[in-house]
Amino acid sequence: MADIEFITAEVCPFAQRTHLALMEKGLDYDHAEVDLKNKPAWFEAVSPYSKVPVLKHDGAVVYESAIINEYIEERFPEPALMPSDPVSRATARIWIDYCNTRFIGAFYGALSAQGVDAQAEAAAKLTDMMIYMEDAGLSPLGSDPYWLGSDVSLVDLAYWPFFERLPAVTHYRGVDIPARCPRLAAWIVAMGMRESVRRTCHDAAYYIDSYARYDAPPAAQ
Length: 221
Ligand SMILES: N[C@@H](CCC(=O)N[C@@H](CS)C(=O)NCC(=O)O)C(=O)O
Description:
- This protein is an alpha+beta fold.
- It has helices at residues 13-25, 41-46, 65-75, 86-112, 116-138, 154-164, 166-173, 182-192, 195-200, 204-210, and strands at 4-8, 30-33, 54-57, 60-63.
- The chain has a 4-stranded mixed β-sheet, covered by helices on one side.
- The termini are far apart.
- 34% of the residues are buried.
- The mean pLDDT is 95.
- It binds glutathione (GSH).
- The site of glutathione has 12 residues, from helix 1 and helix 3.
- Glutathione (GSH) binds next to helix 1 and helix 3.
């Protein structure tokens, strides 16, 4: 039995963030899959927010994906998934915060908007955010493949699950990577080649099916 227990749900992008961190660190862990439509009593007892992911380690119960991933980074420092200098660490945390407080809301906002006008507005908001990420986040780094440069980091792991699911937003709402975001497009290619991503990913058809509840004609049609 491993000394890390990873409580997860296959479909969950937040849980995938932690799955990626565990794999990038090469850690051994036990994996417990939760049916979120029929949560077992043991899960309700262990998960304070009744959400996945949860990590049990060393007598502690850690939850919230961004916090779990920082915990993993602190407890298992090698290979590093955060930069070493304080300014770069602050930059990393700012981008993770941007993902948590803005990008994810815009991502689900685009999917859940109903009506032609609301869908167009939500699609434009998500597109504008990707352009901001390209211009303020990725482009200043030149041709390095990852968010913070040549090494993958917790920033990449925070965003990746949502970009893996973007084909469903494209399918249901017509929002794709803007043509003027070549760095973002190259980042997706670089991330898609990582072993951790290849071992946790699903294809577009899986997410189109998973998000079928959002089915409605895109605003552009
Ligand atoms: N902010 C949380 C979000 C986690 C989350 O929303 N998990 C969803 C699945 S993707 C969940 O467990 N939902 C169950 C529920 O809300 O009942 C994190 O980053 O870990």
